[in-house]
Design goal:
- The chain is of the alpha/beta class.
- Helices cover about 30% and strands about 25% of the residues.
- The strands form three sheets. Strands 9-8-7-10-11-14-13 form a seven-stranded mixed beta sheet.
- Helix 3 crosses helix 4.
Length: about 300
């Protein structure tokens, strides 16, 4: 069962792994959010934080116990933002999204976890007939969106507390959000109620099988080091595959899961080289070709882009 799978020992006040190294007390017993099974195996260990795969349904999650509504991603006393990353590098994927999904001249869009508001701004700039609303729990990020991006429709707080009208949105987006939420069912069920019948929920999140390959390669080449991005075990508390992300949507009432391969973020962490960006683009075109030729069954892209539909 769970203890055997992790090979942990319990001592009052402490956790120890099989090498008798002390683990963070925030590592606590968890079960799978999709099937509630406690049976797991460790598929990666990031600086003494095991990443677990459910042996019943295959869902992957971190053993780290993160807050349900963690506000620290954007905040800090001297917080500055890398606008090359958050603005310029994201423009291509936002443009691809808009041309792919916002084909109507008008509509209502809600962006949940909208951060600094650059996606909302892109929608309003590219599609003036659309109304776009953003919700973000970080007050500091919302301040930037309001003051620097001039967005009056970006609001601070939990979207679940927004009192937005039911069945009022044509599409709801979550960019790099779902992997941060320990228990996502209540959020997605709430968003289900905000969508019009036939409305679309869009989820973007790292493609776990690909990310795991990259993490193992990093460790093999350079070893495990503090501060290096592997699977971000303290932030990405749920890690999704095509099957498990679609299953999450199904459990929250959605149907018709459809994956696409959209443009990547045109930046490479830790590198300012244009060559690295060209390599990333080349990999994108390669994975998109494989995805199309396999009729959507083989997805080697770094990122999952999923739409789910609310039944009419």
């Amino acid at each position: 069962m769970f203890f055997h799978a992790l090979n942990w020992q319990v001592v009052p006040g402490f956790w120890f792994d099989h090498d008798h190294e002390r683990l963070d007390l925030s590592l606590t017993m968890k079960s799978c959010i999709l099937c509630q099974s406690p049976d797991t195996k460790t598929v990666f260990n990031e600086n003494n934080i095991p990443i677990l795969e459910c042996q019943n349904c295959g869902h992957v999650y971190s053993s780290f116990q993160q807050e349900e509504h963690y506000e620290g991603y954007w905040d800090g006393a001297e917080q500055t933002y890398d606008l090359q990353w958050w603005d310029n590098a994201h423009r291509a994927v936002y443009k691809d999204f808009i041309s792919t999904y916002l084909k109507n001249d008008s509509g209502n869009l809600l962006d949940v976890g909208c951060g600094l508001g650059f996606f909302v701004k892109s929608v309003l700039d590219k599609k003036p007939g659309w109304k776009a609303v953003g919700y973000e729990i970080s007050k500091q990020a919302v301040k930037f969106a309001n003051e620097q991006n001039g967005l009056k429709t970006v609001h601070s707080g939990l979207v679940q507390d927004s009192n937005l009208p039911k069945e009022s949105f044509d599409i709801i987006t979550l960019w790099d959000v779902i992997e941060h939420i320990p228990k996502p069912h209540s959020l997605l069920t709430y968003l289900f109620g905000l969508l019009k019948p036939g409305g679309i929920l869009f989820l973007q999140t790292p493609n776990f099988p690909v990310q795991l390959l990259k993490a193992n390669l990093k460790v093999k080449l350079k070893g495990m080091k503090e501060g290096v991005h592997y699977l971000e075990a303290k932030d990405h508390v749920n890690n999704y595959k095509m099957k498990t992300l679609a299953e999450l949507g199904k459990q929250c009432g959605f149907e018709n899961p459809k994956y696409k391969v959209l443009m990547p973020i045109l930046s490479v962490a830790g590198s300012k080289s244009n060559f690295a960006i060209y390599l990333k683009l080349g990999y994108y075109y390669f994975t998109k070709l494989i995805f199309v030729l396999s009729f959507g069954t083989i997805n080697w892209n770094n990122t999952l882009f999923l739409t789910l539909t609310k039944p009419k």
